[in-house]
Automatic annotation (TrEMBL):
This is Phosphonates import ATP-binding protein PhnC. PANTHER family: AMINO ACID IMPORT ATP-BINDING PROTEIN, PHOSPHONATES IMPORT ATP-BINDING PROTEIN PHNC. SMART domains: AAA. Residues 2-246 form the ABC transporter domain.
Length: 253
């Protein structure tokens, strides 16, 4: 499904932010990406969706070489990648339903999207998704009236509206309390199973990741230093990844 082959990234004038990263993610597989600040987690996510062009290596999504695509072809390929963000990235003054429908923007034409005219099938699917994420009572609420956990549910429904093959999830729980964090991680993992979706979740909270995902990739200084089951993350491995940082405490940022 997703395959990274020897992906490296050097920003202008900087050190290697990614160093020869290779791994595969299968359909339906949920991977937590962990590592200390500056390890290259965000760079890796951005190299997958091509917001950052890798300096070296290949990024294959369903056998298509994303790093070679430009313009329209890249936009088409990106439809297969749903993004979920720490700060939700909702349009606050729009309703829950409108935010979810905006997940179809890459599919509907320019005028349709400007006038926010979506096909009936899209509205039906958005309604189903909002029901699935537990927000069926809130379709017409303004997004700025929601709690953090509810906003993240809208963000998840919007990403799924794209009918993606892969979800890239950047710190989905960093702005949430512990209970909402667990609910969001559980929901994400259930949805990936139900829809046979692959996901890479960039997450600081190791204990939370261990509780829900089936595979963890640990980055340190741009290189993969661990790739395995969460049970295999021993104290020694975590110390290798995080150095002397206290990896048991979720990061503040
Ligand atoms: N646009 C950029 N230009 C130059 N250097 C960058 C840029 N973005 C990131 N870097 C550098 O690349 C390295 C990896 O950064 P990255 O943001 O990918 O790490 P991260 O693991 O996501 O960190 P955090 O957990 O703090 O978000 C760091 O040394 C960072 O300073």
């Amino acid at each position: 499904m997703l395959e990274l082959k020897g992906v490296s990234k050097r920003y202008a004038g900087g050190e290697l932010a990614l160093n020869n990263v290779s791994f595969n993610v299968a359909a339906g597989e949920v991977v937590a990406l962990i590592g200390p600040s500056g390890a290259g987690k965000s760079t890796l996510i951005r190299c997958i969706n091509q917001l950052v062009q890798p300096t070296d290596g290949q990024v294959l999504l369903n056998d298509s070489r994303l790093e070679l695509l430009k313009g329209r072809q890249l936009r088409m390929a990106r439809r297969q990648i749903g993004m979920i963000f720490q700060n939700y990235a909702l349009v606050e003054r729009l309703s829950v339903m409108e935010n979810v429908l905006s997940g179809r923007l890459a599919y509907v034409g320019f005028w349709q999207s400007l006038l926010r005219r979506y096909p009936a099938a899209d509205i039906k699917y958005a309604t189903q998704l909002l029901d699935r994420v537990g927000l069926s009572e809130m379709l017409d609420k303004r997004s700025d009236a929601l709690s953090g956990g509810q906003k993240q549910r809208v963000g998840i429904a919007r990403a799924l509206m794209q009918r993606p093959a892969l979800l890239l999830v950047d710190e989905p729980t960093a702005s949430l309390d512990p209970k909402s964090s667990r609910q969001i991680m559980r929901l994400l993992c259930e949805l990936c199973r139900e829809q046979n979706l692959a996901a890479i979740i960039n997450i600081h909270d190791v204990a939370l990741a261990q509780q829900f995902v089936s595979r963890v990739i640990g980055l340190q200084q741009g290189a993969v230093v661990f790739d395995g089951k969460p049970e295999a993350l021993s104290e020694q491995v975590l110390t290798d990844i995080y150095g002397l940082e206290d990896w048991q405490e979720p990061a503040d940022d």
